[in-house]
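STRUCTURE:
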């Protein structure tokens, strides 16, 4: 899985909103809660994560991360994670975040792989969804840093826009000829979201070159 987003913001601000758990969980759709486990030394940081499927139904897992590795001209944060929850669609995995400074801002990159929890058939449907959620979350983070629009406001705007598109399509189907209804439905699906609404399509979903595609998933040793 590869996602890349150019964020026109200061490296320090981006680092803070991705490395502090209480800020990370606000913009990342893949997590509901992230909590660091207290540590007594300078070793890797262990953490617990959770995703709330329904009230009273929470999928949990554990992981370890290093968030202070510096590359030449940039930074890298690596992690491993695993969940033994019976409903988890991801059993274990590893990956990294890279922060690459450019003249226009910071290229924020993630690449990760995982072992499916429910087999290949279910993963064939889940993989595109988790890829979309990662890219959508990256653009949500970009809007937060570039415009000041909070992740919570971005989510409500995205839901409102989705409702309006669905309503317009439903009304068109109910009161207009089939050809017009099809055109309106196609427009509702194909037209890009508003600039202030997060969109996964604004992120790169494939590595730009072979070197990036073949890079190791993580610098962390197995915890």
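SEQUENCE:
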């Amino acid at each position: 899985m590869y996602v890349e987003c150019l964020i026109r913001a200061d490296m320090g601000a981006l680092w803070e909103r991705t490395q502090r758990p209480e800020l990370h969980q606000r913009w990342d759709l893949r997590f509901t809660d992230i909590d660091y486990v207290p540590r007594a030394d300078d070793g890797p940081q262990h953490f617990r994560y959770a995703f709330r499927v329904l009230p009273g139904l929470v999928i949990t897992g554990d992981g370890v991360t290093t968030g202070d590795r510096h590359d030449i001209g940039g930074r890298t944060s690596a992690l491993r994670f695993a969940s033994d929850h019976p409903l988890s669609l991801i059993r274990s995995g590893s990956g990294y975040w890279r922060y690459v400074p450019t003249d226009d801002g910071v290229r924020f990159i993630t690449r990760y792989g995982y072992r499916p929890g429910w087999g290949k058939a279910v993963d064939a449907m889940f993989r595109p969804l988790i890829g979309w959620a990662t890219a959508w979350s990256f653009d949500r983070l970009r809007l937060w840093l570039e415009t000041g629009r909070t992740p919570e406001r971005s989510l409500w705007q995205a839901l409102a826009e989705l409702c309006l598109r669905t309503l317009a399509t439903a009304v068109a189907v109910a009161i207009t000829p089939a050809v017009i209804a099809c055109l309106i439905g196609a427009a509702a699906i194909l037209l890009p979201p508003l600039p202030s609404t997060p969109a996964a399509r604004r992120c790169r979903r494939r590595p730009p070159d072979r070197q990036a595609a073949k890079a190791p998933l993580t610098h962390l040793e197995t915890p």
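REMARK: The first strand starts at residue 2 and ends at 7.
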